[in-house]
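Our collaborator T.R. sent over the components below with a one-line note: 'Predict the complex.' Nothing else. No constraints on interfaces, no templates requested, no preferences about which chain binds where. So this is a plain run: every listed entity goes in together, and whatever single assembly comes back becomes the starting point for the next discussion.
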Amino acid sequence: MRVPTSATYSRVGIDLQAALAALVRQQTLLSSGRRILSPSDDPGGAARSLTLRERQGAGEQFRQNVAEVRGLLGTADSVLQTVIETVTQARESAIQGANDTNDALARQSLASRVDALVETLVSLANSRANSGEYLFGGQESTVAPFAVTRDSAGRIAQVTPNARGIDREILAEVAEGVTIATGISGTTVFGASTAPTYAFDVLIRLRDNLAGTRILSLESDVGPGGAPNPLKYLGVDAATDLEVRGPGGSTAVGLTVAADDAVSYSANATSAIATAARITAATPATGVAATVTAARITYSAGTFASDLTLDGTPGARLVINGQSLTGSVSGGTPGERRDRLVALVNASAAATGVRADAVPGTDDFALSADDGRNISIETDATVSPNSVNATVFGFATGLTGTGPATAVVARGGVRLTASGPISTTVAAGADYADQLTGEGTTGIQGALGELATMLDRAIAGSTTVGNRLAWVQLLDERLTSDSVDLASTLSRTEDLDFVTAILEFRQMQLAYERALASGAEVLQTSLLDFLR
Amino acid sequence: MSLFSGFEIGRKALAAHQAVLDTVGHNLANVATRGYARQRAELVAVAPRNGVEVAQIRRLRDRFLDVQLIQEGGGLGRAQAQVNLLQRLESIFTEDPEAGLGATLSRFFRAFQDLSVHPTDPALRVTVKEAGAQVAATFRDLRGGLDVLKADLVTEIESRVSAANGLVTEIAELNRRIVAARGGGLEPSDLLDRRDLLVAQLSEIAGVAASDNENGSVRVTIAGTGVRLLDGDLVSTLTVALDGSTNTVRLQVDDEVVAPQSGALAALVGARNSPTGPISQAASDLDALARSIIDEVNRLHASGAGLTGHATLTAANAVSSSTVALTAAGLPSSPLTGAFRIVVHDSAGSVASTVDVSVTAGVTTLEDVRSAIDADPNLTATISAGILTVSAASGMTYAFASDTSDTLLALGLNTFFTGTDALTIGESPLVAGDVAKIAAARVDSTGLVHRGDGENALALARLRTKPTLRGGTATFVDFLGTLVSRVGSEARDATQALDRQEAAVELVENLQQQTSGVSTDEELLTLTQAQHAYAAAARYISTLNDVIDSLFQITR
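Returned assembly:
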C-alpha cells in the first residue's frame, strides 16, 4: 500500500480532530453537569426528563397545597377548641343558673357572662384564616358568614347565617386526583339556623332566661298514651286573673277575650294568640313584650292496631279545626297507617293551619300549628272497631259522653321578654297556676340538653378536622418521599455520572495526548533527514 | 553508428532526466494541493540503442474511484445539509428546564392550582394571567423559530444554486481548455485534476453524475434524473422559484423541473417542501398541541364564572352569516347539540333571571342564539358584522354556566385563550384586561356565584393529566415529550448517517490517494535517482568529449 504524504497529514489531522472533539464534548458535559445537552444525545431521556419534570412540578404543587390545607385546618382546629371551651363555659353557667338557690341577682351576673360568651362565639364563628378567608363561610369566603342583629341595649338579639349559603366547601387537590376540603362548614359546627339547637339561639335564650325573661309556656303537648298535660291552659276570665310585672311596672291582664284571636277555630276558647295580644297591649305599662310560639301535641300511635276509614259518619269522623277529613288509612303496618294519616292531615293543612309530622324511628306522630293557634279536634267517644277516638287519639279526659265531642288539644305558647326581670302572679284557683307562678328554671334546664348537643357537634367537628389533619400529615410524608424518588429518577435521567465521566475524560485526554505524540513522531520523520 | 551520435544519446538522457526532475519538482510543489493527482514521467529506450526519451507524463488516477467519489459526494452533501438542518431544528426544541414549553405549561397549571385554593387572591390571579401569557408567547416563539428556519432554507437553497451555477460555468470553461489542449497533443493533467475536483464539489451540492466524452470533455447530469447540467461547453442554468400557491420551492434546469436525489439541495428542498418533513411535522405537532390547549382550557373557562360578572361581552370569533347554522358558519370549532345557561345577577349578586339557550348542531344559527338570549328581560344581545355581543341591564351582570354545546368555545365568549394554533395563540383581552374575569368559580345549582369558589380553577388545573391528544391517549406533556424525542432521534439518526457517509467518502478518497497522492519520500527517491542519472549522463558526455579530444590529438 502506498502512503502518500498528504494522507499522513490528513490522517493525523482527522485523528487529532476526533480526539479533541470528544474531549471538548466531555468537558462540556462535565462543566454543565448534565448528560443530555440536546435531545439527540438521548431522545428517550429528553422526553422522560420532560414528563418527570412535569410530575415533579405537580408534586411540588401538591406539597404546597398540603401545606396550605394544613395551615387552614390547623387554624380551624384551634378555633374549634376555643368553641368547645366557650360552650363548656356556657354549660357551667347554665348549671349554676339552673340551681334554684341562686337569686335573681346571681343569675343576672351569669347572664352577663353568657352574653360575653355569645359575643365570643359569634367572633369565633366569623374567624378568618391567615390568608383572609372566613373559616366557616365555605365558598362565601369574603363575607362574614354570621351577621348579627342587636337589640336596643346593644346585646345580640339574633345571628343570621349568610343566605347565599355557608356550606359549599373549598377543595384543594393534594395528590393526583385526590381532593380535600380546606375547612369545615359553619352549619356542621354551629347547627342549622332553623334547628332548635342553633348554637347562637341556644346561648341567646340561655342568656335571656338567666336575665329574667320568662316563658309563659302553654306546654300543650300531650304525652304518650294520651295523658293530658297537667299544665294545660284552659283560660280565666276575670280581669285580675293575671298580673304581669316587668321593668316598666305591673298591670293586671284579663285573658278571655276571644276577639283577640281571629285564627283559632274554637270560639269560646282562650288562646295563646289572645293572651299574647293582651300582654302586648299592656307593654307600655309593664315593659314586657309577648310573642307566640307554636302549638304542638304528640300522639302515640301504638293504638294504630286496626284499620281505619274516615268518612265523616258517626264513629268514623275526624274533624280538625272544623275541617272533616275523609279517606282511608287502612292496610299495611301501623307505621304505614300512621304515614297515611299524616298525609291526610297535611292535605288539609291550608284550611286547618295544622301540620302533621311523623316522629322518626317510631310510629308516633305530632300535630303542630306554627302560628300558635289552638288545635281543636272533634271526634266520637264511641268505642267501636272503627272508632277514631279509641284507636288513634285515645282521649281519656276532656271528652265525655258517647256522642260527638270537641276538645282543644293544644294551644300555642307565649314567650315574655323584657330588658329586666319579670314575674307574674296568677289569681288563686286559676287553671294555669303552675306555669305562671313558675319563677322556675325550666328554660335554663332545657338549655342544658341543647348545650350538650352543641358541645357534641363542636367536638365532632374538631374530630373531623383532626382526622383530616392526620390524613394530610400522612399525605405530606408520602409526597415528600415521592418527591425524593422522583428527584433521584430525574437525576439519573438528566445528571451526569461524574465519576465515570471524569474517568472517561482522563482517558480521552490520554488518547488526545497519544494522538499528538504519535502524530508529531510520524510527521517529523522524512527521507530528507537522511539524504545529504 | 558514428561517434558523434553518442552526443545525441547523452543529450537525450540529460533532457529525459531533466523532465523527471521537473515532474518531481511539480509533484513536490503540489504535495498539498487538493485534488492533485501525482504525475510520472515515463521513460522509454529509443531503439536501436539510441538513448532514452520521455514517452509521456502520466497522470496517476483511478477513473472508477472518481465516479464513486462523485456519487458518494452527493450523499455526503445531502447528509451534511440534513444534519445542519436537524441540529438547528433540535436547538429550537432543546427544552430549557426553566423557560421551555414544558416548564411554562407546568407553571400555568400550577397557577390554577394555587388559584383554586384562594380564588379571591388578586396576586394569584395575576400569576395565572402571566403564566397564560407565557404559554402563548412560548408557543409563538417556537413556531416562529420554525418559520424562520423554513425561510432560511430558501435563502440557503438560493445560495447553493448560485454556487452550483458558478461551478457549472467553470467546469465548462475547463472542458473547453482541455479539448483545446488535447487537440494540441498535450496531456492537460492539471486541468483534469481541477475539473475532477469541481465536479465532486458540484455533486455535493446537486448530486450529479459525470461521463467522459471522446474529445476529453465531460457531460454532467443530475444523478438519477438524466437532466443535463452541461455537456462540453454547453451549459444549462439551475434556477429556484417559489410557488406561492403550494408554498413550495421549485428547482429548474432551464425550463425543466428537477428534483435532485442527493446533494445538499436534495435535503434542503425536501425539508422545505415535504409536508411530512421534520420541520413541517414539528410545526403541525406544535399547532396540534397549541390547539388542544386552547380548546380544552377555553371549554372549561367559558362555562366558569369570574370574581365579577360580565356587564357586556363581545365574542372573539365572527360567523360568516348569522342566519346559517353555526356548524356551517366558518367558526374555528363546531358547536354540538346541547345547551348553555346565562344567569343574570343583580348588584347584590342575587339571581335576577336565568336563560337557557339550547343549540342543535346543524340547525341553530347565531340569530337563534341571539334572540334566545335577548328574550331575557335583563339581557340585550346584538350581532354586528357576525360578532355577538351580550349586555346586561344597567346595574346587573351575568355569568355563563354549564355549556354542553361548545357554543361559547366556538364563538369565543368568556374564553381564556384566543387563536387556533401555535402561531396565533394569545391571551384573550377579557383575561388580559381584568384578572377578576378569570373564571375560577362555577355558577352553583341555585344560580349563585361564590367568590371563594375555586372549582373551575381546579378543573382547569387538572387538565394537566387529561389525555386529550393522539386520540385521547396522550396528555399535553406526553405529546410534547414525543415531539422533542422525535426531533432528537431525527437529529441523532442524521448525525449517524453523516458519520457513515463521511467514512464512505474517506474510504474512497483514501483509495484514490493511494494511487494519486504525492509521497515526498517516494519523490525524493526519484529525485535522487534522476540526479544521479543526470550526473551520469553528463559524465558520459564529458567522457565522449575526452574520447573525441584524444582522437583529434592523433590527427594533429
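Summary for T.R.: The longest helix of chain B spans residues 122-183.
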